[in-house]
Amino acid sequence: MTQFNDLNLDPKVLKAIAEAGYETPTPIQAGAIPPALEGRDVLGIAQTGTGKTASFTLPMITLLGRGRARARMPRSLVLCPTRELAAQVAENFDTYAKHTKLTKALLIGGVSFKEQDALIDKGVDVLIATPGRLLDHFERGKLLLTGVQIMVVDEADRMLDMGFIPDIERIFGLTPFTRQTLFFSATMAPEIERITNTFLSNPEKIEVARAATTGENIKQGVVMFRASRKDREAGEKRDLLRRLIDAEGDTCTNAIIFCNRKMDVDVVAKSLKKHGYDAEPIHGDLDQSQRTRTLDGFRAGDVKILVASDVAARGLDVPAVSHVFNFDVPSHAEDYVHRIGRTGRAGRKGTAIMICNPRDEKNLEDVERLVQNPIPRLDDPKGANAAPAEAPAAEAANEEERPRRTRTRSRSRTRDEAKPAVKAEAQETTAPKAEAAPKAEAKPAPATETKPEPKAEPKPDPTTRGGFGDAAPGVAWRKRSGPWWPRPAQKRHPRRGHRRHG
Ligand code: AMP
C-alpha cells in the first residue's frame, strides 16, 4: 500500500499530515498526488468524503514551496462552488501548510472587499474563491490572474448545477495557457466532459468510485410515506421525520436533514426546535455570519441537527456526521449522491434515510437508476399505527383515547413480502412487543413483526423498523439516552396530555 512518505511531498507537508493523524493516503490521494507533483493535469472523479481536498492541496503546497508570492498575482487558484466549500478548503490549506510560509486569501461573498483587497495587494500564494466573487475582484482591477501556475476546480458538477460554467470558462481564459489544472467532479455530465476536453491537457484521470456511486459504508433506506389527508401532509411528514430520528437512538449522534426547498428548511428546523431537538437551518437566504455561526456550532458539536438545502450544505466537511435524512427525494438524482456523501466520510460508517411521498416516486426511480441499486424500503418506525402528531390541537388532546389508524399496515406488508432480505434484517433489530407498554405512554400497538416478549421490565415501546434499527430497543421513545434528545415534551405541550414523540 502506498504511504505518504512514498509520494515525494515536502517534509513540512508530511509533518502536518502526521499531526492531522492521517496514516495512509486515500485512493484519490495516492492516485492524484504523483501526477500533480510531476506538473501534469489531473481529472479526479471523486465524491466528497474521499479525501479529495488533500489530494490537490498537498501537491499544491509542495509545488508552491519553491517560489514566492507577488503582489496582486496569486500563484495558484482554487475555485469552489460555494462559500462554505471555499472556507473549508481554506481551513484544509491552513492545516496542511502550517509549517510553511505560504499565504492564502479567501474570496467569498459576505466578506468585505476591503479586507480581501488588502491581502491580495500584499501578494498571496493561494487564492481560494467562488467564481462570482473572483470575477468581481478581477473586474475592479484588483487582481491579475496571469501569474496562476496551478488552477483547481473543485466540485465541477455542482458548478454546473449552479450555472457557473460560463464563469469557469471565462476564468480559464484569464489564466495562462501553461497553467497546470487539477479538476474534480463527483460525476461526469456531458457538459463537464466538454470543459475538461477543452481546458485540460492530457490529464491523468483518477476515478476512485464509479461516477454517481454511493459509498458502501453508508447504510441506506427509504420510507414510503402517504399522508392520511392531503391537508395534513406537511405535519405528518415532519412527524415521521422525528420518528425516524428517534428510532435511530444513540447511533444518531448528529445529522444533516436535507430539504428540497428553502422554505421547508426553515419550517422543518423550526418544528424540530419546537419539539425540543437541537436543530438549526442553513440555506442561501440566511446571512453569511449566521451560516458561519451555525456551521461552526455544528462542527463543534453544539448544534446536533443541521437542516439544509443542497446549495448551503455543499462542501460541508463534518467528518463525524452519523446520519443524513432526506426529508424529500432530491429532484436532481445526483444530489442524492452528494447529500448522502455527507455521512460515512473517510471510511467511517454512516446512515442515510429518505422519506418518499407518492409525488416523489419518479425522482426515487431516477435516484435508484443513477446509483444502479434499489434503495431498501424501511417501515415507518411507528409501524401500522401512526397518528399525526401535528394534528390540530383539539384532536391531539384526545389522541390517547382514540384508536389509531392503520395507515401503513397493508403497504408495509406488501413491501416486506417483496423484500425478504430487508425483512430479515428488520426481525433481527425489531424491538420488543408493545403489549407491555405502560398505559400512560399510550404507545402504538405492534406493527407487522414482533419478537417474543422479554422477561425483563416492560419497555415503553417497540420500534418496528423495516430496515436498520441499531437503536437500542425502546430508546426511540425515551429520548434520554443521548445528550441531545429533547426534553420531555409535556413541559412544552401540557394541553396535549402526553409526551409527544419528537
Ligand atoms: P474531503 O473528501 O476532502 O472532504 O475529505 C474528507 C475527510 O477526510 C476530511 O475530514 C479530511 O480531513 C479526511 N481525510 C483526508 N485525507 C485523509 C487521510 N489520508 N486519512 C484520514 N483522513 C483523511
TrEMBL record:
SUPFAM superfamilies: P-loop containing nucleoside triphosphate hydrolases (SSF52540). A motif (Q motif) lies at residues 2-30. Residues 2-30 form the DEAD-box RNA helicase Q domain. Residues 244-386 form the Helicase C-terminal domain. The keyword ATP-binding applies. It is an enzyme of class 3 (hydrolase). Residues 489-502 have a biased composition (Basic residues). Keywords: ATP-binding, Cytoplasm, Helicase, Hydrolase, Nucleotide-binding. It catalyses: ATP + H2O = ADP + phosphate + H(+). Residues 384-396 have a biased composition (Low complexity). One of its GO terms (biological process) is ribosome assembly. Pfam families: DEAD, Helicase_C. Coiled coil: none annotated. Residues 33-206 form the Helicase ATP-binding domain. Its EC number is 3.6.4.13. Belongs to the DEAD box helicase family. PANTHER family: ATP-DEPENDENT RNA HELICASE RHLE (PTHR47959:SF13), ATP-DEPENDENT RNA HELICASE RHLE-RELATED (PTHR47959). This is DEAD-box ATP-dependent RNA helicase RhpA. It comes from Limimaricola hongkongensis DSM 17492.
